[in-house]
Amino acid sequence: MLCQMCKREDAVVHITKIENGKRTELHLCAACANKQGALGGEREMNNMDNDFFRKMIYPGYTGEPIDEPQCSRCGMTYSEFARDGRFGCPFCYDAFAEEIEPLMRRIHGHARHVGKVPERGSGVFRTATHIKRLKQHLQKLVDREAYEEAAKVRDEIKVLERQRLQKDGEGSRD
Fold first, then answer.
1. Which of residues 114, 141, 161 is at a domain's end?
2. pTM of the complete model
3. Is the pLDDT of residue 162 over 50?
4. Which residue range(s) make up the domain with 40?
């Protein structure tokens, strides 16, 4: 897509504004975006490239130097992580825990790894994982006092647990 202003360069900045329910889009090359001040000038554009992770956690971050955490093992600073996108050692996860949690919540919706069920996993493993998720859902329903829906989920859990016990019993006889 070409820049809507100069019509020569590829658009690299895409701005969507919604004002009074009306949506407008603007597609600009880097030079035209800087001329328009769409990104607050060249300095702001460089911050966006070099401090991507910090801007995701703290939307008002301006790039001003701050007293930032540092890993006691490898010496990596958070700004180095933001620039490279990788940690220096396993201990960086602990050193930057406060910065990582909001970032993970923003990207993934939660800060705790929930994992996946392997595609080739056994039926028993899939069932156990499904039961675990249903139990978590059941607890949320009870907390919300949605008792009718909770009863349906409880019954589904019971059926799955019976099926799992039957399969376990068949497997132990072989």
1. 114
2. 0.32
3. yes
4. 1-50
